[in-house]
Design goal:
The chain has 178 residues and is an alpha+beta fold. It folds into two domains: 2-101 and 155-169, Immunoglobulin-like (Sandwich), CATH 2.60.40.2410; 104-147. 24% of the residues lie in helices and 35% in strands. The chain has helices spanning 102-130, 134-147; strands at 2-9, 16-24, 33-44, 47-49, 78-85, 89-101, 158-161, 165-169. It has a four-stranded antiparallel beta sheet with strand order 1-2-5-4, with no helix packed on it. The protein is elongated and about 90 Å long.
Length: 178
């Protein structure tokens, strides 16, 4: 998987730029995507994205009300990212994307459902086995937890980043008034 980037709007007399990103799916081509979130990594300079979010803050740039197709699926291949340079000068940045695939989300949910069912069954079994003997219940409960690790807390994500792109904002305070 690869993330491509190019400028789509903005010029050197404006702090605002529009970046066009494209995910080249490679080996992941054809897998159903659950969601993709993007952020920027500033190498030089200072800038924000998405209306003021700092670098490192991931945002979901697709809208459920505007980007669904007729089947209710969002195509995350191309995404437009609005950026703003914080002060006149040069900025060098990369864009990063975290991709979650539907089969990973489904497997994660299934693992937690199964774990919770087993956990609840064990709690009921221990209650029936020990009755009011809280010390024995606590001991057996701790043993069960040690022997039955919970699934991962978060869904597996695949992170991809672009090459660096350079932007510039020149202060236009010395041009002629007309």
């Amino acid at each position: 998987m690869e993330l491509k980037i190019r400028t789509r709007g903005g010029d050197i007399n404006s702090a605002r730029n529009l970046l066009d990103t494209r995910i080249v799916w490679g080996d992941f081509e054809g897998k159903e995507v659950h969601s993709v979130v993007h952020t920027i990594e500033v190498i030089e300079g200072a800038m924000t994205h998405g209306g003021g979010a700092p670098e490192g803050e991931y945002l979901h740039y697709k809208g459920q009300d505007t980007d669904f197709d007729q089947d209710g699926i969002i195509d995350y291949t191309d995404t437009m990212i609005h950026t703003a340079i914080s002060m006149p000068g040069k900025v060098s940045l990369k864009v990063k994307a975290k991709v979650m695939f539907k089969d990973d989300v489904d497997a994660h949910a299934e693992a937690w459902t199964s774990y919770n069912e087993e956990f609840n069954a064990e709690v009921e079994r221990l209650k029936g086995l020990h009755g009011p003997d809280q010390a024995s219940y606590d001991f057996d409960y701790a043993v069960w937890l040690d022997e039955n690790s919970s699934p991962a807390a978060n869904v597996e994500t695949h992170t991809v980043e672009s090459n660096a792109i350079n932007l510039e904002w020149l202060e236009d305070s010395d041009s002629d008034w007309i």
